[in-house]
Write a structure and sequence with these properties.
Distance between the termini of chain A: 13 Å
Oligomer: heterodimer
Largest sheet of chain A: 2 strands, antiparallel
Structural class of chain B: alpha+beta
Number of strands of chain B: 5
Order of helices and strands of chain A: HHHHEEHHHHHHHHH
Largest sheet of chain B: 3 strands, antiparallel
Shape of chain A: globular
Shape of chain B: elongated
Distance between the termini of chain B: 25 Å
Structural class of chain A: mainly alpha
Largest interface: A-B, 45 and 38 residues
Chain lengths: 319, 340
């Protein structure tokens, strides 16, 4: 219990540090949200200064950081100047949309990668392995951007899947089932892109750890006892191979979030990605801060979950 | 030739081509020909319209097709042979030294665009080569940046240990805890959006370098930590050697392998990062070509589906990335072999 408490405490400290770092970096930026307005000849300097004062931009950085932190902890997550509303009112639906992509993508990736990796490992150094290794290493080298663009091209050429957005324009008139189907067809393309970019490296890792586990003395002994191959895989090899894979699953959330950001922008999925890019271009500081914080929090939670799983699974760690 | 040699030669060739972009490219990368937007790659002919064979390949001038919108016809009345070493637009070889010599070209009014033209009628091949300068250059410089910071912090942490070590490693954890693209965005947000190309480029390099120092620093710390405890280091210390000497003579040479493999991994990663940022409009902007900015035009669905040659920067990117990965894995295998 103390271990868990300590890990959670250190995660919170970490998140706090991330927020200070991000704020400091944003603070170094020249210009602010109203800088664009200043360039407009029709708007007087007094008006701009008035607005700045009204939204508290004239205060010292420490005060402004404190204001953001207080707002963040209270649940408003800061104030978006572009939306003239608390950040929480815009960010939660966007974050949910991002999770709508990343969670299924992660589940599918692992459900595919585990059997595939085990299967390839069983055929080690045979043509199955060679072909699959070739394919996965090629896919690893393909930039996410290119994968997304190629899938988009495929969809546009064949017209099989809708491109862009989450729902069809007339989705409001559809029944619940039809709406769900509509959502599914819209999500299919970005999901494919996410899975295609994360699957290859996960398969490679599964293959490597299964091969390593299969050579362990315990597994050799089990084979000597004549235990069936399926049982050896499920009861001996997989528990042995699980350790690095659980850590990898925790770490892969970071890559998944970054990739998702890019794919959302390319495929115009209304997630955190487009929101963040818009906020960056408009210098909407609180939105950028809170979006980065949410992403970091997801990442930290993922790593924490991985660590706790390991702690529960592996008695060696508890000693 | 060995596999490693072959890969290294290919990579060196690619870099040389990009470095000599002004010479290898037939046109100025920002020169527009508004009458030829999205012209397809020029076709090299050896047989003319009368069926006569010519040893020297030639092209025809393109003209918009009067019957079809958005397509071109070749004007077969006049041949334009492809010439080697021709005078063309002026470019600077080095700051201060200018040249007009190009590897190949054709006489005006015909234009040779081996990879077609973009929406402004600019030659894609010329933009690809010049853009490679920005993209690969950013990758190399950012790697240098990240490794310098990483080696410095990693060595300090590993060699001095204790509180310094703890502080540096917490900082590294911090940088590794943030999804890198978000961090990149946050740092990029700190920079003014509209800057001249040179400033944007340098800032981009600095940003990429800052984001990526943590991993090499961690690895180098581990190596320094173990190297510090070797008996010959203790012996040298006993003989009165000072920290700078110990580091230079006994400890840093150990880190060479990690530095090399990390460099091989970071360069393609950073090239990709530059491409991603420029693709999203946060990097080097128009009219200066960079691979990411060139790919940015694919965000329009009409361009994406109609003009395959606009994908060439992505292909170049994959080639460079694969070559770097192959080289790194070969070097890594060799170093392991040497170590064991």
């Amino acid at each position: 219990m103390t271990v868990i408490a300590r890990r959670i405490a250190s995660s919170i400290v970490m998140l706090f540090a991330v927020s200070v770092l991000s704020f400091a970096v944003l603070e170094l930026a020249p210009g602010d949200f109203f800088a664009e307005m200043q360039a407009d000849a029709r708007v007087g300097a007094q008006t701009v200064d008035g607005l700045r004062a009204q939204y508290g931009l004239t205060q010292s950085p420490v005060v402004r950081y404190w204001e953001w932190l207080r707002s963040f902890v209270q649940g408003d997550l800061g104030f978006s100047l572009a939306h003239r509303a608390p950040v929480s009112s815009v960010i939660w639906t966007r974050a949910a949309n991002t999770l709508l992509l990343t969670i299924p993508a992660m589940l599918v990736t692992w459900c595919l990668a585990l059997p595939l990796g085990v299967w390839i490992a069983r055929h080690r150094n045979r043509w199955v392995d060679r072909v699959c290794s070739g394919v996965t290493s090629t896919l690893v080298a393909l930039p996410d951007l290119l994968v997304a663009l190629l899938l988009l091209l495929l969809a546009l050429r064949t017209g099989l899947f809708p491109t862009g957005g989450m729902l069809s324009p007339d989705a409001d008139e559809l029944g619940f089932g039809a709406r769900l189907l509509d959502l599914g067809t819209h999500a299919f393309l970005p999901l494919c892109a996410l899975i295609a970019t994360t699957l290859p490296s996960v398969v490679r890792h599964v293959r490597a750890s299964v091969i390593e586990a299969a050579e362990a003395p315990a597994v050799q002994a089990a084979r000597g006892y004549g235990i069936s191959r399926a049982r050896i895989t499920s009861h001996y090899v997989l528990p042995l191979a699980a350790n690095p894979l659980v850590s990898l699953a925790g770490l892969s959330i970071a890559t998944l979030l970054s990739t998702s950001l890019l794919i959302e922008v390319v495929m115009s999925w209304p997630g955190l990605g487009p929101l963040l890019v818009e906020a960056l271009l408009a210098k909407d500081v609180h939105v950028v801060l809170s979006a980065s914080m949410l992403a970091s929090a997801l990442l930290v939670i993922g790593n924490l979950a991985a660590d706790l799983t390991l702690y529960a699974m592996d008695p060696r760690i508890r000693v | 030739m060995t596999r490693a040699g072959l890969i290294a030669t290919v990579l060196a060739g690619l870099h040389l081509l990009v470095l000599l972009a002004g010479f290898a490219a037939p046109y100025d990368p920002v020169e527009q020909t508004r009458t030829l937007p999205f012209a397809p790659p020029s076709r090299l002919h050896v047989v003319d319209a009368q069926g006569q064979f010519h040893l020297q390949p030639f092209v025809y001038a393109l003209a918009p097709d009067p019957d079809n919108f958005d397509s071109y016809v070749e004007d077969t009345t006049q041949r334009f042979p492809v010439q080697i070493m021709v005078a063309g637009s002026t470019y600077s070889v080095l700051p201060g030294i200018e040249s007009r010599l190009h590897l190949f070209g054709v006489e005006a009014p015909a234009r040779i665009s081996l990879l077609g033209t973009d929406g402004f009628g600019r030659d894609v091949l010329s933009r690809l080569l010049h853009g490679g300068r920005i993209s690969i250059g950013a990758g190399l410089l950012a790697t240098l940046c990240a490794l310098l910071v990483g080696v410095a912090f990693g060595t300090i942490a590993g060699f001095f240990g204790g509180r310094v070590d703890a502080a540096v490693m917490r900082l590294a954890d911090l940088f590794m805890a943030v999804p890198w693209l978000y961090l990149l965005f946050a740092v990029r947000a700190a920079l003014p959006l509209h800057l001249d190309t040179r400033a944007t480029f340098l800032l981009l390099v600095a940003v990429l370098g800052v984001v990526g120092w943590a991993r090499p620093a961690r690895l180098i710390r581990g190596i320094v930590l173990s190297a510090r405890e070797r008996t010959y280091v203790t012996a040298a210390r006993g003989l009165g050697a000072q920290a700078p000497y110990l580091l230079r003579r006994h400890i840093l040479p150990h880190t060479l392998g990690v530095v090399l493999t990390q460099a091989g991994l970071l360069v393609p990663q950073y090239i990709l990062a530059e491409v991603t940022l420029s693709f999203l409009g946060l990097g080097v902007g128009e009219p200066t070509p960079s691979w990411g900015a060139m790919l940015g035009s694919l965000q329009q669905y009409s361009v994406l589906t109609s003009y395959w040659w606009m994908f060439t920067p992505a292909i170049a990117l994959v080639v460079v990335a694969v070559a770097y990965h192959a080289l790194t894995s070969t070097v890594h295998a060799r170093l392991r072999l040497a170590a064991s």
